[in-house]
Request: fold
Amino acid sequence: MPTSRAYSFMAASMVIYLFGNQTQVGWLYVVAALLLGIVLAGWWMNRGVLSHLEGNRQIGDGQDREFYEAEAVDITLTLRKRAGGTTHHLRVREECPLAAPDSPTQSMQLFIPSLSKQQAVQFTYPVTLDRRGVHLFPDNRSDSRAPFGFFRREGKLHIKTSVLVYPEVRPLQRFAFLERTLNAQIARPRAGVGYEVMGVRPYRAGDSPRHIHWRSVARTGVLISKEFADEAQPGLTLVIDLFEHPYPPERSKHTPFEWAVKAAASIGDYAQHKGYRLHLLSDDEATPAPRGVVDRRALLEYLARVQPQGKRPLEQVIGAQAVQAFVVVILPWPEPTLIQPLITLRQQGANVMAVVMAAHSFPKAGTDSSALCEPLRNADIEVREVVFGDDWVEQLM
Reply:
């Protein structure tokens, strides 16, 4: 693409040529040809200035580890000239989806004076991971006006980088809802996962080698595995509302739904550290939750991806699946139609808590939560109302 400098030189060449044509002064023709020749030389030398460029991007220390919202990491961008001649005056724009929208590292322009064959340059910049989710880095836009600034060559440098950021997990010192009942263990006379050996059986593929009953193996010559009694422990069902409520548009991460995800991550983390079997319940048509007992990694990966895009209201989701002895319902939007389904759960014998995001207290106000919280309290259902601006960890405890 020609620049204004190229047009200026070509115009000057044309004017000088016209003067020479009128005056028949020979050296004017020479000057006109020289100016036009410089422009043509600039075009020829600018043709392959962006060819054979490659790069890679390293997040953190390069190890395969977990990343969490609000964590500070260093990102290293390496650019290399694989072949060809030296590239001069290279500009590369780095767009970082991990940074906050108002952060200076969200969009940066990097300048490289020269980059010769097999040479590499590195740029390292710090980023505070703004929000959870799967983040894809866009292509780097590059351009160069070498050698004389007459032409601007533009291109895209594809450096495939995908980062999964887990939601912020803040440890809860206590969560009274799960501490009011002892975590009793009752052995059941059927096979399961526990510590009490109830017998032996033939070894099956997938059995742990630690469970092999070596005395039986020595006696029979056949692999025999121990069979354990099933131990019933109180479990926790974490219910997350994924319905597409009328949330006000907001670029910031300080929204009721984002705070609800963080609360769910911290409560789930606390339950797992206390030995509770954790189950997830949400709208499977929006984002299917893992079935059965959920470990820490599965919990965080699920919460990193969920979005409020469900089409089924939560009152239709509750009751579609069996729940555990303890039920914590995370409500980013105070919907009064949930009062009766939660009361029904309580009447069926479940210990129910509603964690309600006070949507009206957030930067872009939503619905007042009092119409939901008061009837639930009157029905002997524990309620934690999370108000924006206060420490949400203390409000959960």
Observations:
- The chain has four domains: 4-46, 53-166, 185-232, 234-396.
